Amino acid sequence: MDDFNGHFAGKVCVITGAASGIGRALAIQLIAGGALVALSDKDTGGLEQTVALAGAEVSNSVRCDHLDVADGDAIAVYATTVEDSLGSADYLFNVAGLTRYGSFAETSLEAHAAILDVNYWGVVRLCKAFLPQLIMKKGGIVNISSLFGLIGFPNQAHYCASKYAVRGFSETLAQELAQEGVYVGCVHPGGVDTAIIKNAAIDRADRQPTDHETMVQQFKEVARTSPASAATQILRATQKRRTRIVVGRDAKIISALQRLLPSTYKRIITRINRLRNRAEQA
Question: Is the N or the C terminus of the chain less surrounded, counting Cβ atoms within 10 Å?
Fold first, then answer.
């Protein structure tokens, strides 16, 4: 058993995006540690698999709910339902998110807004709905930003915008809620082997049938951190109430590069992308 598990035993932990990836890994580790968990996602089949993989079942300590984080009314009802069934939340893990691939010029405003609606506004809605419970319990909020909440990256304008927003929101919330005894952490994962790219739409006029497969393969080559490892790092940092949580060796290197060379890191990334594109075309 990991050293952090005792900390979460008996605590009510709410996890969005729990049907796969980091959300699933958090759920499995928290269930193993004796937490009471409220798992939500739009993928109810995935939620059932998460519970099965945890060796658990839906009960008075584990609940699963279909939830769209873009639906504010549903979130308000959900917060009350969780409190009535499990008790007031001790921890809120905002993991649910999505991305697309394509330049700003080729991505519609509607698609851009949809990313922000889930990745940023979803976090805001959940925090607002559960805030009274978290203040009462002097609990914690853990929001998943990204490495792309620290740096800009081509073809990810919408995703970067949403994750920078999560970062700014989280850092501000941490200051505002400190006097209430509520902890707020912001997580910046690098390449984690999740399904986010597999589920991403591509906004390119010259899109080819094989583009999606190529993009998924390229992501897997750089996604060096497993969801289980990411979840362990997040939970250990949460126990220690760290407000900035950088996950993965790649994220730590690029985070350091951005802080040391804030004006020139973009040129380095552009150069790396050009070299990679030349290698693919050769």
Answer: C
